[in-house]
Amino acid sequence: MTTATPAATGARSATSGLAEDYLELDALLSADEIALRNRVRAFVGSEIAPHIAEWYESAAFPREITAKLGNLGVLGMHLRGHGCAGRSAVEYGLACMELEAGDSGLRTFVSVQGSLAMSAIHKFGSEEQKERWLPGMAAGELIGCFGLTEPTAGSDPSSMRTTARRDGSDWVMSGKKRWIGLASIADVAVIWAQTEDGVRGFLVSTEAPGFTATPIEPKLSMRASIQCDIELNDVRLPAEAVLPGVTGLKGPFSCLNEARYGIIWGAMGAARDSYEAALTYAGNRTQFGQPIAGFQTTQHKLVDMVLEIQKGTLVALRIGRMKDAGTLKPSQISFGKLNNVREAIAIAREARTILGGNGITLEHSPLRHANNLESVMTYEGTSEIHSLIMGQAITGLPAFR
């Protein structure tokens, strides 16, 4: 991000508070929530922001950051026990916002690890499974992935073709999964498969014979993240590999709702960073004898961004408070995911226009955020699916078939 000139900084000094938090939403947060947010923000500033352009350009996930995120306490931070931090839903959301201000790919790692893989083990695993995996995953020493989506089963996971059949006391699993985050670096994969009893979850060692994870390349989005194809060719699993606590799609769906919740906050982080980049640039960039921040068109764009970021943050906070109170409905999560990602991608694109041609370089963040948000808009339920979830909640009539 371009450093503000003294003149530009002076011009903004009287309104800098409104520029950062127009409605003073920090007043709605506790001191502990603000402290945690600021700690994650500082981590992003020192450990992610200086390197993200290089990671994105080279399509490299920084494997060394996993232990640092573990030390930060954000891996499975909303879970309690077995080495997990046990923080509130709002605190987890604030962490997601700051992480995605750095990059959607890095927030996605935290989401896949904590909201998907760790949540599945925490919700449905045996005590032995929890103790075997969760402490190491919380520390970032062990990596997990979550295998639900398939090449022919994306929005309709009930049509999955991966199967697990009994063979004596063992299970034998075969099938394919696609767009599975972290699979090529994971130690354990939570794989959902059709069984004679319905859909079940299994903990699969990624070193098991017959398990293959192949990164999907090249990508135009989420380049500082890892997504893979998985092939399962007669993978033999012991009886204790099955997650005993759930049968049916309600298992993976409950984990997806955890991930969708984090996205509600994270998308606003990407939006905020795009806005801040545009605001700083507009204060420094001089055309026709004055900073372009003084032009009506530029101010109109910046105002629209502030409106949607502040509203989206209020949506996230309200949903977070309901989640902490135990009153949150899945259809309300869809409201937040649909609205906030939709607005975030519009903000990132508009921010790029303020940067002009310079905005297509990796010196500036908005177009990187916009590209990443194309993926965020699609995974954990497309915008169309969340519209249908809301439509059913409003009308009482399902429109999925």
Automatic annotation (TrEMBL):
Domain Acyl-CoA dehydrogenase/oxidase N-terminal: start-end pairs: 31-141
Record-listed E.C. numbers: 1.3.8.6
Pathway listed: Amino-acid metabolism; lysine degradation; Amino-acid metabolism; tryptophan metabolism
Swiss-Prot/TrEMBL cofactor(s): FAD
Keyword Flavoprotein (UniProt): yes
Catalytic activity: glutaryl-CoA + oxidized [electron-transfer flavoprotein] + 2 H(+) = (2E)-butenoyl-CoA + reduced [electron-transfer flavoprotein] + CO2
Keyword annotations from UniProtKB, A to Z: FAD, Flavoprotein, Oxidoreductase, Transit peptide
Presence of the UniProt keyword Flavoprotein in the record: yes
Annotated ranges, domain Acyl-CoA oxidase/dehydrogenase middle: 145-235
EC class (word): oxidoreductase
Domain Acyl-CoA dehydrogenase/oxidase C-terminal: 253-394
Pfam families: Acyl-CoA_dh_1, Acyl-CoA_dh_M, Acyl-CoA_dh_N
Family of this protein: Belongs to the acyl-CoA dehydrogenase family.
Record protein name field: glutaryl-CoA dehydrogenase (ETF)
Native source organism of the sequence: Saccharopolyspora ipomoeae
